[in-house]
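Lab notebook, bench 4. The sequencing result for the construct came back, and we need a structural model before the next group meeting so we can plan mutations. Quick request posted to the team channel:

Model the 3D structure of this chain.
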Amino acid sequence: MLAHAQHYPALVLNADFRPLSYFPLSLWSWQESVKAVFLDRVSVLSEYDEIQVHSPSCVMRVPSVIALKEYIPTARRPAFTRFNVFLRDNFACQYCHDRLPTHELTFDHVIPRAKGGRTTWENVVTACSPCNLLKGSKMPSEIGMHPRLKPAQPTTRRLQENGRSFPPNYLHESWRDYLYWDTELEG
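Done. Here's the predicted structure in token form:
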């Protein structure tokens, strides 16, 4: 029926035509997007030219960009997760400033837990393993290792903006207008 259909995801936009998330990019499988169309939960903004789905009573092209009909408000406060700490810090060690893949990153307590530091937005930063080991359970002033940016709880908007800096491996051409609508056009 659909050869290689898994390669045809739909970009999901909120009712305001902004992606639900940039990182990870809000994508639905072709099955989810077709179901949402039939349930009248989304508007189809763009379709793939090369692929269709068939039922006994109709034929439709697979959506490449869909927009929710009802607006979903973004969370006021992002969840405190390892991934969101990395995203807040742009996947860069806050001590040596190297940008690394997630599997090479850890997080560090600026004020070590052994000295009363808590696991909060305001005390945890992204660190590479060598910097984390070097700092150990020392205070920043003891070892002269201070985070590049003072750790703080980010807004959901800040995380979204940071996520836009990390485009996914695959971007269908029909998505570009919706992902980068506020970037400067080439002259």
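The chain has six helices and six strands.
Will bring this to the meeting.
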